[in-house]
Amino acid sequence: MSLGAHLVELRRRLMIAAIALVVGMVLAFIVADPIIHFITEPIRLITEKRGDDFSALNFSTVTSAFDMRMRIALSIGLFASAPVWLWQIWAFIMPGLTRKEVRYTVGFVAAAVPLFLGGCYLGVMIMPHIIELMWSFTPEGGTNFYAAQDYYDFIFKLMLVIGVSFVLPVFLVALNFAGIMSGRAILKGWRVAIIIATVFAALATPAADVVSMLMLAGILIVLYFAAAGLSLLFDRRKRKQDAAAGLLPDAA
C-alpha cells in the first residue's frame, strides 16, 4: 500500500473507533445514575454512622453535576468500546507484523487486559474502606462535604493506578522477550521489587488500612515473581533452541 492508502486506512479505522467511543459514552451517560449511586455508597454509610446529614457529595458549580456525568460517560465509554478500538488498532498494525510477532502480541494483550481489569476491580473493592478510613480522621464537630469532581477523580485515579500496576509484570516479560532483561536479572532484583511494591501499596492505600496495603503489596509481589519465573522458563527454552541449532555458548 502507498502512504496515501495507509493514511486513508488509518482515518477509516479512527472513525470507527471514535463512533464506538461515542456510542459507549451515550450508553454510559444514560446509566450514570446507578454508577453514581454505587460510588457514593461510602458517603451514605458515613452519614448513617454520624447520625446526621452533614456528609454529602457537593456540586459547587452550576455545571458540576453534568461534568461528573460526562467524566463517568468518558471512562465507562472507553472501557465499553475497548473491544472495538483495540481491534481497529490491531487490524491496522497486524499486516506489518510477522506471524511470530502476531502470536507474541496476542499473548501479551490476552495477559495484560485481564490483569488490568482485575486491578481496577480491586481498586473498586478497597475504595469504600479507604474513604471510610479517611473520614475517621475528621475532628469532632467537623463536616465532610466531598467536591464531586475531586471525589470522582480520586476513585478513577485509584482504579487506574492499581490497574496499571497489575500490568507491569507483563512489561517485564516483554523486556525479556526483547532480550533487554534476562530472567535471572529480573529475579535478582527481588529485594528492590518487594520494597517498591510495599511503598506503592502504602501510597495507594491509607497508612492505617494495613489489611488493604498488605493485600495489594502481596498481589504485586506474586505477579512479580510469576513474571520472573516465566522469564526464566523462556530463557531456558531459548538456550535449548540455541544448543539444538549448534550455536556456540558465547554466541548464544
From TrEMBL:
Residue spans crossing the bilayer: 12-32, 72-93, 105-131, 151-178, 190-208, 214-234
Keywords: Cell membrane, Membrane, Protein transport, Translocation, Transmembrane, Transmembrane helix, Transport
Claim: Ligase is one of the keywords in the record: no
Cell compartment(s), UniProt: Cell membrane; Membrane
Main location: membrane
Similarity field: Belongs to the TatC family.
Quaternary assembly: The Tat system comprises two distinct complexes: a TatABC complex, containing multiple copies of TatA, TatB and TatC subunits, and a separate TatA complex, containing only TatA subunits. Substrates initially bind to the TatABC complex, which probably triggers association of the separate TatA complex to form the active translocon.
Name of the protein in question: Sec-independent protein translocase protein TatC
